[in-house]
Amino acid sequence: MSILLTVGILILVFVSIIVVLLVLMQRAKNDGGVGAAMGGGMAEATFGAETSNVLSKATIKGAVIFFVLAFALYLGYIYMANRATSGVLAPEIAAPAAPVTSPQNTTVEATPAATPAGTPALEAPAPAQQ
């Protein structure tokens, strides 16, 4: 997935350069400015009399491609971030539980707790008489 995102970023950079060049090639309304300096006459010779129409359509298509690709990359990075935090990249594998064996014939002897010297031992209360 990260390779796909990297390729998408490269395509996005290429499309953005193309859109910038298309905008700069367009002539301004008063036939001056950067459009004439960047080859506005050459674009007219290439595309004919409908130069402004062709360049404006190409600019619109390039801008749509740019925004759709930018949004798709945004969604791709959100997906990658959610996938990384959810632990899907490295799932934990639970080890099988060891079988429980019950001890056989074990007896537990109750031993009275040793009382420290000088303290009286507690005795159990006598049963009540009727």
Task: Give a description of the structure.
The chain is an all-alpha fold and 130 residues long. Helices cover 55% and strands 0% of the residues. The chain has helices spanning 2-25, 34-37, 40-47, 51-86. The termini are far apart. The mean pLDDT is 76.
Count of DSSP H/I helices: 4
Task: Provide the structure class.
Answer: mainly alpha
Low-confidence sequence ranges = none
By DSSP, the count of extended strands is 0
What is the radius of gyration? 41 Å
Estimate the strand proportion. Answer: under 5%
Mean pLDDT: 76
**What percentage of residues falls in helices of 4 or more residues?**
55-70%
How do the helices and strands follow one another from N- to C-terminus?
HHHH
Distance between the first and last residues' Cα:
85 Å
Shape: rod-shaped
Largest beta-sheet details: none
Element layout with pairings:
Layout: H1 2-25, H2 34-37, H3 40-47, H4 51-86
Helix pairs in contact: 1-4
Q: In short, what is this structure?
A:
The chain has four helices and no strands. The chain has 130 residues and is mainly α. Helix 1 packs antiparallel against helix 4.
